[in-house]
Amino acid sequence: MDIRVQAAPFDFGAECGRFGQGDGRAGAVVTFLGLVRGADGMSRMEIEHYPGMTEKALAKIAEDARARWSLSDLLIIHRYGPLAPGDAIMMVATAARHRKAAFEAAEFLMDYLKSRAPFWKKEFGPDGAEWVQAKDDDEAALDRW
Amino acid sequence: MDIRVQAAPFDFGAECGRFGQGDGRAGAVVTFLGLVRGADGMSRMEIEHYPGMTEKALAKIAEDARARWSLSDLLIIHRYGPLAPGDAIMMVATAARHRKAAFEAAEFLMDYLKSRAPFWKKEFGPDGAEWVQAKDDDEAALDRW
Amino acid sequence: MIDVLYFAWVRERIGLPRERVETDAATVAELIEELKAREDRYALAFSDLRALRVALDQELSDFSAPLKGVREVAFFPPMTGG
Amino acid sequence: MIDVLYFAWVRERIGLPRERVETDAATVAELIEELKAREDRYALAFSDLRALRVALDQELSDFSAPLKGVREVAFFPPMTGG
């Protein structure tokens, strides 16, 4: 299990290559990568976070996932600071015996990361800067767990 | 979009590293990796398939996914032939604007691959060889789509 | 003449991966009856149709489907890919 | 004395990321009323509480929660990570 909050870029391919494999326990690995989209004329993004609370919130979300599904491995990486279109923002990965647990745990992590980890995105576009608004959908996504 | 049916190993990390990124269209990438578990004393596995039908079935499943979700990229790799515990059996990857579509499309691909693509697994263990039996769960998983 | 293919344990029970069959069977079910009448190994392989699937010209089908125009019939157990 | 932290547009409206506040407020809601009474920029930042979230000692909480024993209060908009 590994949780990282960092300004530095990470290498999604390299993380996937070494995640959850090699011990023979996992039959299923699911990974999710969140990227800055280049659409809508956005030129850059900045992510602010709450040092201290971020780490606690991510640890809690990861613990909740591990209590609910039997996972042989789990990874969360989330960046903060300035980002450009195409950049990797964050990733999660889960490993389990069967695909259902790996998929469900990855979606659970994403749903809680979206609405319960203290990150805030600000987009800089042709019309100036704007804080990304939380979507009602994202809050509603928690209801299924 | 890329679909490969092959006896050769593939490099999950390298595939993840070059999938769905770089064009700025995707905000979400989901990947799934299926591995041979080392549990239960299994010493090796063999996967048989139906050349010709396999390619058609996978193309159909991929087309169905693309008709249903707006995907900026899609990848399916499935191996056949002899495999050892820890080996990668197959992977799928999906790229979309938002996480919901990427997750759903990846799960759709997996559910249909399990029950509609002509692959058969045979496991070799301490008590001899046995064809893996399809699970009722796997057939039932199709009902949600 | 029709190509008949067998996969997984169906192939193992019948003892060959494919054969050309001379038949006037109108449906898959009739073809199966003809094959079962041949030899015990066929009767054994086709003893429980619920455990079998059929593809006609590489598309999943069912036992009541007509064989007219079909060039390739394949029998196999439920698939276990992924 | 309590540390009060602001993030995202709350930080921008109030114009600083954190401050130490001398207060006898019993609840978060009372602390907000004290802050709003200070200056327009506070009144503006706290004008719509539905658009705000609060964390007490780095755990999400709510506006009716007591402040007794709390060392750090943070105000911010709904989170948008992932």
Please give the CATH architecture of chain A: Alpha-Beta Complex
The CATH class designation of chain A is Alpha Beta
Domain module count of chain A: 1
Intertermini distance of chain A: 22 Å
Mean pLDDT of chain A: 95
| Portion in beta strands of chain A | 35-45%
Question: What is the spatial order of strands in the main beta sheet of chain A?
Answer: 1-4-6-2
Q: Give the tally of β-strands of chain A.
A: 8
Number of domains of chain C: 1
Q: Tell me, what's the shape of chain A?
A: globular
Question: Main beta sheet of chain A: strand number and arrangement?
Answer: 4 strands, mixed
- Strand line-up in the sheet with most strands of chain C: 2-1-5-3-4
CATH architecture name of chain C: Roll
Distance between the termini of chain C: 34 Å
Care to give the gist of this entry?
The complex is a heterotetramer, with 2 copies of chain A (145 residues) and 2 copies of chain C (82 residues). Chain A has 145 residues and is an alpha+beta fold. Helix content of chain A is 32%, strand content 35%.
Detail the topology: elements first, then pairings:
The complex is a heterotetramer, with two copies of chain A (145 residues) and two copies of chain C (82 residues).
Chain A: E1 2-6, H1 12-18, E2 28-35, E3 44-49, H2 53-68, E4 71-79, E5 81-83, E6 88-96, H3 99-116, E7 119-125, E8 128-131, H4 136-140
Parallel strand pairs in A: 1-4
Antiparallel strand pairs in A: 2-6, 3-5, 3-7, 4-6, 7-8
Helix pairs in contact in A: 2-3
Chain C: E1 2-6, H1 8-14, E2 18-21, H2 28-38, H3 40-45, E3 53-56, E4 59-61, E5 72-76
Parallel strand pairs in C: 1-5
Antiparallel strand pairs in C: 1-2, 3-4, 3-5
